[in-house]
Every structure is written in structure tokens, then in C-alpha cells.
Design a protein that fits this description.
elongated, mainly alpha, 211 residues
Length: 211
């Protein structure tokens, strides 16, 4: 009797969600590392409260990126409820998305350190705006690949709902790129656009529509 070969199967969507949760948790935790506890030398010419107050740009950058990563985490679970399976390309696209999330603590630190310095504010904001566009781009790649001929998404989803999400993700990429372009001319306006986009995505996502 010949032995049957074991059937290979791709990781389940729930397994990808579990791995992704770990990356989200690490990225959020790393954000706070950029805010240092002052040494005694730092306090030689100022009070502790004055030092803490002067760190407000770092608090701002921390909160902005924390909320943004938190929104991506929540929407990642929402999006994965629309998928019924995985494949190799889809898994790699998710890895690319997680790479962009894990990268965010670095530009967050740059933003918090230099956003209020006249000489370095624009490049700091430009770098940050580009860095927060990367997850949006990776997100769009995941969705476009998954929804093509409904090879990954639930086949019961209506075409209208799929088209609506596609338009939304293309629009968000356009807005992030606009914030990136504006950063070359006005750091304040670009940061305002980044904050506005983050607040916009605090709204609950569109309810799935099934046939």
C-alpha cells in the first residue's frame, strides 16, 4: 500500500492575525522608548517639570503614531474578517505591511525630536509623512490583490461593497501622498493633514454587504 503524501496548506487567516498582533504590540511599545527619562545632568540648569514640559513634541508624535497604529490594528482585524483563505503572495504582502508598521517608531522619534526646530522641521515632517504613507500603500496592495476576481475575499461580498472599499483605499493613499507633497512647502500644514487623516479613520469602518 502506497503512503499518501501530506497535503500542504497555507496558514489560516487567524494565524496571520495572531502574528500581526505581535508586530503591532511591539511597534506600539517601541514608540515610548523614544521618550527618555532625564538624567541628573539634564536637570542641572532646569527643573524637572520644565524638562518634562519641553518634551511635548515627543508626546505629540507618540500619541499620533500610537493612535495611528491602533487604528491599523483594529482595521486589520476588520479586513481579515473579509478574507476566507490565504496564499503565498498574500502572506508576503502582509509581511510587507507589518514591516512598514514596525518601521514607524523610527520616524516617530525623528518627528518628536525635530518638528519644532526651524532648520530640520521640514525634512522631519517629510520623512514622517512618507513613512505613514507606506502602511497605507501596503494596505492597498493587500486589498487589490485579495479582491482581484475575489481570489482571497469572501465570494458573498457584493461588488458594490468591494468597489467602495477599493475607492476608499485609493483615496487614502492619494491624501497621504498629498500630505507628503505639502511637507516640502509647509511642515505645519502637512502635520495637520496627517492628524486629520488619523482622526478620520477613528470612524467605524463600513459594514460588510453580502449577497
Amino acid at each position: 500500500m502506497s503512503e499518501s503524501k501530506p497535503e500542504y496548506s497555507e496558514p489560516s487567516t487567524s494565524r496571520l492575525e495572531a502574528v500581526s498582533d505581535g508586530v503591532f504590540a511591539i511597534a506600539i511599545t517601541l514608540l515610548i522608548i523614544e521618550i527618555k527619562v532625564p538624567s541628573h545632568d539634564d536637570l542641572k540648569d532646569q527643573s524637572l517639570m520644565h524638562y518634562i514640559w519641553l518634551q511635548w513634541p515627543k508626546y505629540f508624535a507618540y500619541v499620533l503614531s500610537f493612535v495611528m497604529i491602533g487604528i491599523y490594528w483594529a482595521n486589520h482585524h476588520y479586513l481579515f474578517k473579509l478574507f476566507k483563505r490565504t496564499n503565498h503572495v498574500f502572506n508576503l504582502l502582509n509581511v510587507f505591511f507589518l514591516m512598514t508598521i514596525a518601521f514607524l517608531p523610527y520616524p516617530t522619534g525623528i518627528l518628536g525630536e525635530y518638528v519644532i526646530t526651524a532648520e530640520h522641521a521640514k525634512p522631519a515632517v517629510t520623512f514622517y509623512a512618507f513613512s505613514i504613507w507606506l502602511p497605507a500603500f501596503a494596505w492597498l496592495m493587500i486589498w487589490v490583490y485579495a479582491k482581484y476576481k475575489k481570489r482571497i475575499v469572501d465570494h458573498r461580498l457584493t461588488d458594490r461593497f468591494v468597489a467602495s472599499l477599493t475607492s476608499q483605499y485609493y483615496l487614502s493613499n492619494l491624501l497621504y501622498l498629498l500630505a507628503f507633497g505639502v511637507s516640502f512647502f509647509s511642515a505645519i500644514v502637512s502635520v495637520g493633514m496627517c492628524v486629520g487623516l488619523t482622526l478620520l479613520y477613528l470612524l467605524p469602518p463600513k459594514k460588510p454587504e453580502y449577497q
